[in-house]
Amino acid sequence: MGGKDLDYSPGFGNEHSSEAVSGALPVGRNAPQRAPFGLYAEQLSGTAFTEPRARNRRSWLYRIRPSAAHPPFRRVDNGWLRGAPFRDVEPDPNRLRWSPLPMPDEPTDFVQGLVTVGGNGDVLRREGIGIHWYAANRSMERRVFSSSDGEFLIVPQRGILLIRTELGVLQAEPGHVALIPRGVRFRVELPEGTARGYVCENYGQPFQLPDLGPIGANGLANARDFLAPVAAYEDGDEETEVINKFGGNLWAAVYGHSPLDVVAWHGNHVPYLYDLRTFNVLGSISYDHPDPSIFTVLTSPSDTPGLANADFVVFAPRWLVGEDTFRPPYFHRNVMSEFMGLVEGAYDAKAEGFVPGGASLHNMMSAHGPDRTTFDRASTAELVPQKIDDGLAFMFETRWPVVPTEFALGGSHRQEGYDRVWEGLERHFGL
Ligand SMILES: [Fe+2]
């Protein structure tokens, strides 16, 4: 199956429907006495049945065999994957930074290549997030994965991901994100042989588009730029290992067929592909720059209005035109905790050290901002209109501190001495 030739169904949060075989999708009812072509009907609920209509997520799947027909799941090795609550190490107030996760030497697929950085909340209470890196060098073969603990927001940094899901196929490249809903099974293939990137596993309410308030009806991430897959099914009797992340641990059961056997579906609990380059960046056209929440692509709300369980934020190419303004991100201390990654290029608050594939973590109330080189340059720069178009950075911002894993603190790719970035910021005070 081709990559760029894939068909998609545009729109975020709306009701999509798709059938790989004409007539496979029942008309007029969800559960007819006999579904077309002898298919089994199955509802996949991403929210409680009774949640308000605007938040309700569910899809109806019409499949060759029901998901229920499987032997017991048994515990399998977690590798370096972890789930909240995170108790490996004490919460750490220090600013942390990492070089890219090394590529594996051994054959490693997407699931084997998942390494948890840290997180917060509790998977069993459906709140908080887990943050993972992945580095893989082979396609998943005869196995699929799903997380009962949360949805997977995948940010590829290197290498194409061909993601075959129960609802169809997505091709995610660096610069794209893929969003796989809670419970949806998928297999990741690597057309280029290797891949590396980041994952925000959102245990909380599903990601949604942020409200726009005075911005109006359009702007930031536009709903029409999100792409859902179209139905594509596998009709195979090869044994397939189904790996389920549940309660922070991995469990597996062997099905006697491919569970990617959904011939038709409709609903709004669906995977999405989104090209970050389509983000409509808004900002100041007078002075100062808005808080980085202006760059929010998707938000997972909490029960407190305005307080996100997690925000996914992108620092996309944009113009800076502020007059009498320190233009890079300002020095600040934030009650929210910020994990940043870099897909390509450079980030305008750091002259060096924050590299594509790398990451930084600025936890609750930790002081951060531009490094000295950036401060000196930005303080004296001539304030002509400036295009920032040499990088694509992003942030997972979350309501609670991110507790790192032992792996993240002790990994060889952790950069020691990150604090030195802010050395040499001398006093300029003078009366
Ligand atoms: Fe920050």
From TrEMBL:
Residues that hold homogentisate according to the record: H368
InterPro entries per record: HgmA_C (IPR046451), HgmA_N (IPR046452), Homogentis_dOase (IPR005708), Homogentis_dOase_bac (IPR022950), RmlC-like_jellyroll (IPR014710), RmlC_Cupin_sf (IPR011051)
Boundaries of every Homogentisate 1,2-dioxygenase C-terminal domain copy: 278-429
Keyword Oxidoreductase carried by entry: yes
Needed cofactors: Fe cation
Catalytic activity: homogentisate + O2 = 4-maleylacetoacetate + H(+)
Active-site residues annotated for this sequence: H289 (proton acceptor)
Location of the Homogentisate 1,2-dioxygenase N-terminal domain: 8-276
Region (Disordered) location: 1-20
Highest taxon, organism lineage: Bacteria
Keyword Glycoprotein: no
Pfam families (alphabetical): HgmA_C, HgmA_N
Pathway(s) where this gene product acts: Amino-acid degradation; L-phenylalanine degradation; acetoacetate and fumarate from L-phenylalanine: step 4/6
EC number of the protein: 1.13.11.5
Family: Belongs to the homogentisate dioxygenase family.
NCBIfam families, per database record: hmgA
Oligomeric form and interacting partners: Hexamer; dimer of trimers.
Function: Involved in the catabolism of homogentisate (2,5-dihydroxyphenylacetate or 2,5-OH-PhAc), a central intermediate in the degradation of phenylalanine and tyrosine. Catalyzes the oxidative ring cleavage of the aromatic ring of homogentisate to yield maleylacetoacetate.
Protein name in UniProt: Homogentisate 1,2-dioxygenase
Gene (name only): hmgA
